[in-house]
Amino acid sequence: MQRGYRDVGYLLAVRLREFRPAQFSIRLWRQQVVFLEEHVERNERGAVRAWFKTYYPALMHMIPARRHGEFVAGFIERLHEENHVQDEAYEQSPVR
Question: Is the pLDDT of residue 48 over 70?
Fold first, then answer.
């Protein structure tokens, strides 16, 4: 099943921390990613889209504007899955 630009967002969520723009130190990039993750937690799709337009303008230019929502949905889907898996692992852990 192909999901188009949704898959692009999903896959980028898996590797985002590795794709640090050259102008950012590792520390500053982590701060920007945390800021993005806060938008994801609050399901602020417009803010997520704006973040990508700010930090990855060339990528967002390649994605047709009418498909930006699909891209953001895939990105958010992956981060929610990641958080869900982490929450389940915590709940099943015998030692907390």
Answer: yes
Q: What amino acid occupies position 22?
A: A
Longest dimension (CA), the chain: 48
Report the percentage of the chain scoring pLDDT > 90.
61
For position 2, what pLDDT does the model report?
A: 60
First and final CA of the chain: distance in angstroms? Answer: 39
Secondary element (H or E) of residue 81: helix 68-92
- Residue 49, token pair as written in the block: 């889209």
In one-letter notation, the amino acid at residue 96 is R
Please state the pTM of the whole predicted model. Answer: 0.79
How does DSSP assign 9-50, residue by residue? Answer: HHHHHHHGGG---TTS-HHHHHHHHHHHHHHHHTT-HHHHHH
